Amino acid sequence: MRMRPTWRWFGPGDPVSLSDVRQTGAQGVVSALHHLPHGEVWPGEEIEKRKAEIRAAGLSWDVVESVTVHESIKTRTGNYRQWIDRYRQTLRNLAASGIRIVTYNFMPVNDWTRTNLDYPMPDGSKALYFNWFDLAMFDIYVLKRKGAAGNYGETVLREAEKRHRTASPTQLERLTDIITFGIPGEKKRTLAQMRAKLEAYADIDHAALRENLTHFLREITPVADELGLKLAIHPDDPPFDILGLPRIVGRAEDFDYLLSAVPNPSNGICFCTGSLGAGPQNDLVQLVRQIGRRIHFVHLRNVSRDADGNFVEADHLAGDVDMYAVMREILAVQQRVAEPIPFRPDHGH
User: Fold this and answer.
1) Tens digit of pLDDT for each residue in 224-264?
2) 3-state secondary structure of 104
3) Peptide bond before 266: cis, by omega within 30 degrees of 0?
4) DSSP 40
5) Residue 292 has what DSSP assignment?
6) What class is the 4-110+203-304+318-345 domain?
7) Is the previous residue joined to 37 through a cis bond, with omega within 30 degrees of 0?
8) Can you tell me the distance from the alpha carbon of 207 to that of 210, in angstroms, rounded to the nearest whole number?
9) How far apart are CA 134 and CA 309, in angstroms?
10) pTM for this structure?
11) In the chain, where the domains are located
12) How far is the C-alpha of 199 from the C-alpha of 173, rounded, in Å?
């Protein structure tokens, strides 16, 4: 059985049209209702409207990416049970419309994080880039997070201070916009709002956040199992702690824990080669073997890392991820499962 090629589409406002998507050779679409407030129930009529738009273009809505997990669920505070109830209802509504794969993540406060969205490549193209020195400069001198300096080594601290001395107001504003932007469907945050969101995690360490994720999954996987849904958690991007926040989905031991703590068949992984490839500790071929049948969705992207841990989203076959070897293992998994595994190209350049 072959994997199923898909393409991400952000909805009617996406500059990439569904006609463009179809011309790529994609058979399915990966989409979400970004116009709805995070955590609110996705109404069946809104789901059907998006599904009809996609079907009219000769494509199918194969994967939801993402149904955002409300911050109250991640911190397990306030009316988090109410937000879990709403999440379950959204799953029911998606299943009623025949959509079977739902992607989500459990990254605190921010979604994926970069420090440059148009890093120049040798061939003139632009790529997304993450630089520890720039992140530390923002964290310490712009955001002014309490205790921020304690999260960085001496080399990073020296370089961050040096960069701050020479950075222009325009450069600092641009960096701030990139880091504080948040996730699709969310408005730009002020620095005060960002600090408040970070403070909500002051007493939540890796173990506590992991327990909150486990609790969430134990609440929703029975419903997903009953509905025949596949849940695919996206790895943390990047797969290491940032801004003092714990990251708990980015290493082999994280997947071991997650899949054993919640063994329900609906509980699975969105295998993102770019996110996982940014972590030098990760052997992606071994990770595919480890996760196996619990891979429900695949993102294909390459990255190149430097000695300081900075990384850029590289040419598809030219980065540090051995894409041929990874794909060979994923195709081996595909031959052992009954349904096509959807895959899509990821952001990059």
Assistant:
1) 999 999 999 999 999 999 999 999 999 999 999 999 999 99
2) strand
3) no
4) S
5) G
6) alpha beta
7) no
8) 5
9) 12
10) 0.96
11) 4-110+203-304+318-345, 116-181
12) 22
